[in-house]
């Protein structure tokens, strides 16, 4: 019985390490699969790449849906386009909203020089976003 108890005590650290390693691996996989966030750095408009700007209101479900579609479009378009948020109730977002007389959940497309190309009400699916940019 002592020998069995001794073997169990020797296996305990390995089991604990295995569990910790599995949790760390799972956490790492989750982090790599999480979508990248969006920036509110609207000064990037007109700096050499087209920009998709979404007027984001965290109180609206359509804002969540639109950002999901923007993530999917970004996966296909890569770093060739800025995907930006004009967040309501922030100084930068409110300035953008006032300048463009924007409504909540509206999507704007600017060319690489910062010229407004089009604006559309959200929610636009990823394919439509990609067509707008191209």
Topology, please?
Blueprint: H1 2-33, E1 51-56, H2 61-77, E2 82-87, H3 91-100, E3 106-110, E4 116-121, H4 126-133
Parallel strand pairs: 1-2
Antiparallel strand pairs: 1-3, 3-4
The proportion of residues forming helix, as a percent range, comes to: 40-55%
Overall 3D form: elongated
Q: Strand portion, in percent?
A: 15-25%
- What does the largest sheet look like? 4 strands, mixed
Beta-strand segment tally = 4
Short précis:
By secondary structure, the chain is of the alpha+beta class. The protein has helices at 2-33, 61-77, 91-100, 126-133, and strands at 51-56, 82-87, 106-110, 116-121. Helix 2 (61-77) crosses helix 4 (126-133).
Describe this structure in words.
The protein has helices spanning 2-33, 61-77, 91-100, 126-133, and strands at 51-56, 82-87, 106-110, 116-121. It has 134 residues and is α+β, with helices and mostly antiparallel strands. It has a 4-stranded mixed sheet. Strand 1, helix 2 and strand 2 form a beta-alpha-beta unit. It is elongated. The termini are far apart. The model has no long low-confidence stretch (mean pLDDT 87).
Notable traits:
elongated; 4-stranded mixed beta sheet; 134 residues; 17% strand; alpha+beta; single chain
């Amino acid at each position: 019985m002592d020998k069995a108890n001794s073997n169990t005590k020797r296996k305990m650290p390995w089991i604990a390490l295995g569990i910790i390693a599995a949790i760390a691996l799972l956490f790492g996989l989750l982090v790599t699969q999480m979508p990248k966030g969006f920036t509110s750095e609207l000064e990037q408009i007109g700096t050499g790449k087209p920009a998709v700007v979404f007027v984001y209101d965290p109180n609206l479900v359509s804002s969540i849906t639109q950002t999901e579609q923007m993530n999917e479009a970004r996966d296909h378009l890569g770093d060739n386009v800025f995907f930006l948020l004009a967040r309501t109730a922030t100084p930068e977002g409110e300035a953008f909203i006032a300048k463009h007389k924007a409504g909540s959940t509206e999507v704007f497309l600017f060319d690489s020089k910062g010229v407004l190309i089009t604006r559309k009400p959200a929610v636009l699916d990823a394919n439509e976003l990609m067509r707008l940019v191209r």
